[in-house]
Amino acid sequence: MKKVTQIRFIGGNKYELFIENIKYIFYADTLVKNNLLKPRDLSETEIIEIVDYNNYLLGYEKALKFISYKKRTEKEVKEKLKSLGISEKISNKTILKLKENNYLNKDDYLKSFINDRVKLSLKGPYKIKNELLTLGFNENEINKYLNNINNEVWINKINEIINKRIKSNRSLSKKMFLYQLSNYLFNEGYDKNIYDSIVSKIHVDESEIYQNEYNKLFKKYKNKYPKEILDIKIKDKLIKLGFDI
After folding, report:
1. Which of 36, 68, 74, 113 is the most exposed place for a label (fewest CB within 10 A)?
2. Check: CATH 2.30.40.10 for 105-149?
């Protein structure tokens, strides 16, 4: 048996205990639950159980603080607790308590996450799905909500992206513009069948861009090549840039 030799309140709902000259910091609830408001003898088994219970309270407090800033997934909370040195056993118990108190709710998280991405970003469905997969959700859980989004939503987003990129295009030929646009839409997670049908109908007036690029190349090469070669060099470069000559 080991004796509790000193108990001292240190603030913040915590107490400092000395058991055989070894210092412990316990929550008040730990003391009440384990009858430690006065010095008494403890067995090794009791000490282990008391420390485990206090670690559970610590893990729960840290988890609540972690999820207070924004919604979190079970995977994120487990990783956070692990980074704080909380054992897997205590972590699992903490997760269970959070679920019981509805602090961890998969359905709420999924709906909130997908709604935020749809409203606040131009990410496509596959990119949103991949983000959720990395957060620990499975495809069935994700598809339950993601598949409810009407295709018209994604079509509108694709058109918004296209309009922005057309307005900002200052140097790309139509061919290069459409190539880069398709790659961008693919990387942003849009359905190829949907964006291909839209991209194929885009009208890009490259006449002004062509003239600007021609003028830049003329200025660059005019002192390097004689007139009879200069035009050939410029057109060769323009062809490589995707312009139809």
Report:
1. 68
2. no
Do 129 and 146 touch, CB atoms closer than 8 A?
Answer: yes
Q: How far apart are CA 24 and CA 198, in angstroms?
A: 66
Where are the domains positioned within the chain? 2-100, 105-149, 207-240
SS3 content of the chain, % helix, strand, coil (to 5): 65, 10, 25
- CB burial of 27-43 (b: ≥16 within 10 Å; e: otherwise) equals beebbeebebeeeeebe
How sure is the predictor about 231, in pLDDT bands with cuts at 50, 70 and 90?
confident
Question: DSSP assignment, residue 35?
Answer: T
Q: What is the pTM of this model?
A: 0.73
195: burial class by Cβ within 10 Å (0-12, 13-18, 19+)? buried
Give 46-85 pLDDT, tens digit per residue. Answer: 999 999 999 999 999 999 999 998 889 999 999 999 999 9
CATH number of 2-100: 1.10.10.10
